[in-house]
Write a structure and sequence with these properties.
The complex is a heterodimer.
Chain A: E1 3-14, E2 17-28, E3 32-36, H1 43-50, E4 58-63, E5 66-67, H2 73-79, E6 81-83, H3 96-101, H4 120-132, H5 148-161, E7 166-170, H6 178-193, E8 198-202, H7 206-212, E9 215-220, E10 223-228, H8 230-234, H9 237-244, H10 246-252
Parallel strand pairs in A: 3-8, 3-9, 6-7, 7-8
Antiparallel strand pairs in A: 1-2, 1-4, 4-5, 9-10
Helix pairs in contact in A: 4-5
Chain B: H1 2-24, H2 29-49, H3 60-76, H4 81-86, H5 97-126, H6 131-150, E1 161-162, H7 170-197, H8 199-209, H9 211-216, H10 221-247, E2 249-250, H11 252-256, H12 262-273, H13 279-298, H14 303-317, H15 321-329, H16 354-365
Antiparallel strand pairs in B: 1-2
The chains are: A alpha/beta, B mainly alpha.
Chain lengths: 253, 366
Amino acid sequence: MTAMIECEGVTKAFGGIVANNEITLEVPEGRITGLIGPNGSGKTTLFNSIVGYHPVDAGSIKFEGREISDLRVQQIARLGLLRTFQQTRIYSKMNCVDNMLISVPHRTQTYRTMFSKYPPEVTERAEDLLEFVGLYEKRFLISGDLSFGQQKLLEFAMALMNEPRLLLLDEPTAGINPTLINGLIDRLRRATSELGVTLFVIEHNMPVIMGLADNIYCLANGRLLAHGPPEKIQNDQRVINAYLGAHYYLDSD
Amino acid sequence: MNTRLRRTLPYAGLLIAGIAAPFLFPDYTFQFTVLWVMILFALTWDILGGQMGYNSLGNIAFFGVGMYICAVVQIGLYYDVAQYTASYGAVKVEFTAEQYFTGLAVGLIAAGLGAVVFSVILGWVVFGLRGPYFAIGTLGVALSAGELTGAWDYVGGGGGIALPIYPGEPDDRSLFFYALCFVLAMVLFFLLRWIYLGRFGLAANAIRDDEEKAEGMGIHTMRYKTVGWAIAAFFLGISGALFGNMIGFIEPLEVAFPTVTFGLFMVVMCLLGGRGTLWGPVIGATLFHTFKEVTWTYLLGWQWVALGALIVVSVVFFQQGIVGWVKEKWPEKFGIAVDDRALAETEPDLDEAPSQRLRRQTEAAQ
């Protein structure tokens, strides 16, 4: 199993707050890896560091063996490393099909293709993926008018349209109703098994992430707290403390 | 066929109106020429301002740059520019017809290309700015361009330059410039129609809606912005060159870099007609120019008040502009609707394969 992402001692501080403190982790190829931790534990900061949203203070981040911590967001995206946002971000004044079409991979784009039209197979693929997330009928609606959950699904479909090698998902199930969550989990699994997309998922919904991930990393206060398969994480006393807030009681005793 | 005819009709109408106008109303040829320049203004502003959400207040700089480049080329091909400008028209300089048209042709091309070079360099500096900072930054560029030109003796400074005189009848002259402005506006219009339908249009809209997301998806945002601005600059540069020659005399503040008149009109026309649409700028420019000319004729003394009132009314009540308002009122006409086939579908089954579902739907339809 080769590692797709290798983080080595990644540190990022905002002023006096150390959001990521020497995080070392690996995301294996072709698997679903989870990232959990209480609010403010540095999960999103780590995602931002990986996709080049901000420079890291120390440490190295490798994507498929290549150092990417000095690359910029667009360059990293074109390598096939993509993220979705916790606060869902779509192109809200365009319809769903257009949202999908503009999300095609940009690594081969040149000045000449800037003005080209989309071949029918690209439109077909866009519609297939919209069908994949259950938005086919609404494909001509303005995406900003969709419900929050549907926007989330659209953002996921857009990410798949980009044909990423690795997809970082920031709370994919937040704000989605329970029946749709099952459908979404199924789609995440199929994205990995059928489309070969490696996933790295931040999730607060414990049943979801425990069922989905092969491997889970737990952060707390900017440090890596625990790492292992779901069963091990579930029974790890430190993780239970971090989530139940046991440390809070310990502190006040 | 019927829908296709209905779709081509507005375009054909625009072309026919443009060709017929100077023959039907020969007295108004000059006004119609200015109208096409206004449409050029609105269309070029909308590339960044409407489609990409980059509200530039300084696009008029390309107009002035093109105007001056053309003037310098027209004169410089046959005379010493510094000597020519220093005489302030005291020395009568003759241009033969051949010299005039060669100079104009070379000058127009140079104006377009020069404005493109200027826009690329400028874009490299100002595209780091977002929102209001971009607007103010570009406004500063346009204002300082005017002031700097005014202080530059080589191009005549504040005194301006008298351009070569058209070798022919005044009526031919106005028709000549009308034709050039009309053709330029039409080339731009159909070019924009073409690129808005393709990848460029979508990328521009993506940048408008969420530039950070667009970057995160790997879109070459800087490239799209630069190219969009360069297209605007190219056409503005040429229209500036044409406008300067039509007026016959150019100077920095009122003719070449009129930031608070033309520079703002282009924004207002887009807002009025509907930014981010192909037809919005055309409709907005036509209405605006007509309104302006009518008030200048019948409400003299109050014309600026009337113009201000129009701007206030359009910004307060018609923020989407005319086309945007129509789009909002009748979205189905623009294809913004739930797919009809979905109506039969009460509860979409997420686990059904797309192909299976399509087959079932086709069967249901029969």
